[in-house]
Structures are given as C-alpha cells and as structure tokens.
C-alpha cells in the first residue's frame, strides 16, 4: 500500500502566517499573545473547511512552545512542539462532540481538567463540532467553562453557532471565520503545484476554486482528484470534464445568439447542451452567472468582482462592449424567474426554452416600451386602441339576448351600471396595454421587413474597408486591408495570408460583425476568418526586372507597401542622388 497523504493533511498550515484567508483571526490571536491577554475560552465559528480546527491546533501548539519566535510563532524544535507534531502531546486533548455528546463524556472531560499539565504551562481542550452536544451536556459544562483552573484553556469549534445556547456563547471569545475567496485559493493551489512539480492552467485552478465554494479543504480534495486524472499537467478541459462543468464557451455562444436575436441558434445550442448530459436548471444558473459577469465588466470600478483568469477576463470585456445594460438586467431577471419557477414547471425543457426566446426578443420589447402609447380617447372619454383592432366595449343593451329581459328598477339598474363600468375599465385597461404592446411589436417588425438586407460582396467589401480605415493599430489595419472577402449566403468569409493576420482580424471579429449587421440591415450576417496561402503568392510581385538603382529599389518598396511613403514624409527623409 502506498504512503500517499492527501493534500489537505500534507499541506495543513503549521503557523498562523501559513493560514489562508483568515488574517483577521491570526492577527488578533498574535496580538493577544504579545500582550499576554489570552482568554480562557474561545469559540471558532464559520463554514466548513476554512481552518477552524487548524487554527485551534496552532494556538494550542504556541501556548506550550518553549522558544517562541519574535512573531509569536511556534519553533517546531522544542520537546513540546515535537510531541505535538507527532500527535503524542498529553497537554492537548481533542474531543469530537459529534460522537461524544452525552453528559458522561463531558464529565470525563471535566475530570481531566482537574489534573495539571505534566509539561508546559497550559492544558488545552479542543472540542470540535461543539453544537452537537446535548442540552444536558452543555449545562454540565457551564461551570467549568466559566471558572476553569488557570492552566486550562478551551477552544470550541462549530459550523452552526446558532445551535449553541447563549450561556455558552457569553463565556467565550468568538472568532468568525470567513469563506476563503477564489483568489486566495488559486494562490495557495499554485504554491502546491510548484512544490509538487505540477503544471496547471490558471483557468483550471479558478474552476477548482469556484467549485469549492469557499472551503479550502474541498478545493484540495478536488485538486487531488484532478491530479489523479491528469497527472503532472492540469488543463482547463480536464477539469471541466472531470467535474462535469459546462464549458464557458457555450455561455459566450448563447449570449451572442441572444444579442443577434437568432432563435434557431438559441434552441439548437440549448439542445446541444442537453445532449451533453447537463440539466436545464444547471445551465440556467450558469447563464445567470455569465450575464452577471458581463454586467460587472461594464464598469472598471466593478471589474475586480470578476473571479476568472486573465484570458477569460478579456473575453468578458469584449462581450460586455456589445451588450447593453438594459439587455443584461432584463435577461438576469428572466433567468432568475426561470430558476425560481423551474421546480413547478411540468415541461422543464419548454420552460427554459420559453425563457431563452424571451431573452432573444429583449431588444424589440425595449423598443416597444419606448414607443409612444398607441391609444386615443373616444368622444365619451374612454380609451380605445388606435391600431383598429380593438373595439369599444358594448353597452348592456347591445346584446341581442338582453332584449327579452325584464325591466329593472332604477336603483338596481344604477348599481349594475356602476359595477359594469368598473369592470369594463379594468378589462379595457388590460386589453389596451396588450394591444399597444402587440401594435408596437408589429410596427417594429414592419420596419425590419421594410428595411431590406443590403448584403452583397460589394457592399460587404466597402463596409469592411471603411471599418479598417478607422482602426488605430496600423498592424491590424494592414491585416484587414490584405484580406480577400468571399460571400457564402449570410456568411462573410475573410481569407487572410497568415496566422498573425488571422489573430488580428479575430480580435476585432465581434465588432466588425456588429458593424456589418447594422450597416447592411441584416442581423443574420456572420463572419468567418480562414487562412489562404495563395494570397502570399498573389501579394508577391512578379519580378520582371531587377531594380538597378537605389531609386528603383525605393519605388519598388513604395509599390509593395504604401506606408513607406508615409514613413519618408514623417521622418523627412530624402534620397541622395
């Protein structure tokens, strides 16, 4: 059998300065040691896997250390520290209250408190999961906890502070441990990778930190699992495959389809996600988180809230430039409603698809809401739709069946008319709002239908060059100018001559595609970048004759690169005869 030790045990901190994400607790305890104001009872509370028991052991080790450092850390060389490291210390007693929660167990603990430490100053009692103690056990423990002997110190640890009776809480110094941030986890995991000789991608470590949900112990367990799967090289694809996490690329593609109002692409992409075995509610939750990340990228002040790697951060920035805040807020609201009502829906796939389709038409709904109200007042003062589809409410006497009705007395008739008018006003208001919305949508559809697509190879080439002329980078501009465009239905294929040119063009891909859609009045335009090696031969001038003089060489350089002339003018260079 191998001597493998899990990372959570192997890299458990031995000093306060090694504790991850709990500097406020470590700093307070160090100051208490420096001023000799150490309390007789502590309560460490917080989520699982954040270092409560670890800090309790470090504090117990420091209290009996014979050679404390200037920073009040244990020396790890004295007899007390060595016995602690070997789990052979008689001065530190640990009790698991989850399995030792009766009055008899507490009485046995109190009996041990009576005996002074044989070596060292203090006898430290660490009670883990203290909230599991019964009420009788808590009551039996009260007096000892309030007035222990001077050499006894109690450190209680719990994940559920609200289950501890107030009389116990009032006798302890309470330290609240925080969830460990993904950034701190990633730094800690990188340090372990260096020690273990493991190569790991930043995005892979960020996924591990996010799945740990604030618990470093969970992150280390996931890290061991991924290491067993991947070996000495951890990649992003290995992590999402092993943890069954949906790739970020699906969320980026879905957002692009929502912004383009491409309903077929939305439904096909969602179907592809379901075929991969992911549950619809998991996708909805992930999409909501993706939209939230785009929203925080809209402002530099909130960019620090994005907990991703640098390469992924740049993709979020680019997509944030294309998405309007109104779209993001409305889509987040729809995703939240979909998540809340998901359990109540019988046809869960249809429930999610309807929410996605609504997100795809957010742009039209916003325009419809901004349009003027399509309603007018009739001569009798009531409102009626202006689109000709709505009919004014009929009076009670207009009903043919009502002609044979018996006449009513005046009071009854007046009461019925009042009740009918109130009901008609409410119903008319609802139908009017619906009719106005439908009319606005029809107007918007008519505008889009009237605005025919201007897509052709000639118009696409013209807009492509116009976009290139406003670019700031000369390298990117040259890459755009050197492309050869080809039109395949709604796909504009840009042929480039090298991988460098392709990277330059792809860096502007979303912006140029959005420009082509707006300028050519076609929301279905897509752009694809391909490498065409024949362009290298086409752009290479055939040498009819070799340049004989220096001026001939300069003229040839000007023909091959138009920026040579601009460079000569800026530097005021002249060719000497």
Main sheet makeup: 5 strands, parallel
The CATH architecture name of the largest domain reads 3-Layer(aba) Sandwich
Low-confidence stretches: 373-408, 426-432
- Tell me which oligomeric state these chains represent: single chain
- Total helical segments: 26
What would you call the shape? elongated
Strand order in the largest sheet: 2-3-4-1-5
Total individual domains? 4
Protein structure class: alpha/beta
**Structural Rg:** 36 Å
Q: pLDDT average, as an integer?
A: 80
CATH topology of the largest domain: Rossmann fold
DSSP strand (E) fraction?
A: 5-15%
Going by CATH, what is the homologous superfamily of the largest domain? P-loop containing nucleotide triphosphate hydrolases
* Range of helix content: 40-55%
State the end-to-end distance: 86 Å
């Amino acid at each position: 059998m191998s001597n493998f030790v899990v990372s959570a045990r192997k890299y458990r901190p031995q000093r306060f300065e090694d504790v991850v994400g709990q500097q406020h607790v470590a700093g307070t305890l160090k100051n208490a040691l420096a001023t000799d104001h150490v309390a007789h009872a502590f309560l460490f509370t917080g989520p699982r896997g954040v270092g409560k028991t670890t800090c309790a052991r470090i504090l117990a080790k420091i209290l009996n250390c014979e050679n404390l450092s200037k920073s009040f850390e244990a020396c790890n060389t004295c007899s007390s520290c060595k016995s602690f490291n070997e789990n052979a210390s008689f001065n530190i007693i640990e009790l698991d209250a989850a399995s030792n929660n009766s009055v008899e167990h507490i009485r046995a603990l109190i009996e041990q408190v009576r005996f002074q430490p044989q070596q060292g100053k203090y006898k430290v009692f660490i009670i883990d999961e203290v909230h599991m103690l019964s009420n009788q056990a808590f009551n039996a423990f009260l007096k000892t906890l309030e007035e222990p002997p001077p050499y006894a110190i109690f450190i209680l640890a719990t994940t559920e502070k609200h289950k501890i009776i107030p009389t116990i809480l009032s006798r302890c110094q309470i330290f609240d441990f925080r969830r460990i941030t993904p950034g701190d986890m990633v730094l800690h995991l990188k340090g372990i990778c260096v020690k273990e000789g493991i190569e790991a991608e930043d995005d892979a470590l960020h996924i591990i930190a996010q799945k740990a949900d604030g618990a470093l112990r969970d992150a280390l367990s996931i890290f061991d699992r991924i290491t067993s799967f991947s070996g000495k090289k951890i990649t992003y694809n290995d992590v999402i495959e092993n943890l069954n996490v949906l790739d970020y690329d699906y969320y980026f593609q879905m957002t692009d389809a929502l912004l383009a109002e491409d309903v077929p692409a939305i439904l096909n992409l969602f179907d592809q996600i379901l075929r991969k075995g992911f549950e619809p509610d998991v996708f909805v939750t992930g999409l909501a988180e993706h939209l939230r990340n785009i929203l925080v990228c809209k402002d530099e002040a909130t960019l620090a809230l994005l907990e991703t790697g640098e390469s992924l951060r740049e993709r979020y920035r680019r997509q944030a430039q294309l998405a309007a805040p109104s779209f993001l807020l409305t889509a987040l609201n729809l995703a939240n409603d979909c998540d809340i009502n998901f359990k109540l829906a019988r046809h869960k796939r249809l429930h999610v698809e309807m929410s996605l389709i609504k997100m795809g038409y957010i742009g039209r709904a916003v325009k419809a809401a901004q349009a003027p109200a399509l309603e007018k007042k009739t001569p009798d003062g009531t409102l009626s739709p202006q689109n000709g589809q709505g009919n004014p409410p009929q009076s009670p006497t207009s009903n043919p069946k009502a002609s044979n009705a018996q006449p009513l007395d005046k009071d009854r008739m007046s009461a019925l008319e009042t009740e009918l008018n109130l009901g008609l006003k409410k119903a008319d208001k609802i139908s009017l709002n619906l009719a106005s919305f439908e009319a606005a949508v029809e107007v918007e559809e008519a505008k889009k239908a009237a605005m025919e697509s201007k897509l052709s190879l000639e118009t696409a080439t013209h807009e492509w060059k116009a976009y290139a002329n406003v670019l700031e980078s000369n390298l990117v501009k040259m890459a755009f100018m050197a492309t050869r465009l080809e039109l395949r239905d709604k796909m504009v294929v840009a042929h480039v001559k090298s991988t460098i040119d392709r990277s330059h063009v792809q860096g502007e891909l979303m912006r140029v595609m959005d420009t082509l859609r707006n300028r050519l009045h076609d929301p279905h335009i897509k752009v694809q970048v391909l490498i065409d090696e024949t362009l290298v031969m086409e752009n290479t001038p055939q040498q009819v004759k070799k340049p004989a003089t220096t001026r001939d060489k300069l003229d040839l350089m000007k023909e091959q690169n138009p920026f040579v002339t601009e460079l000569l003018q800026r530097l005021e260079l002249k060719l000497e005869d």
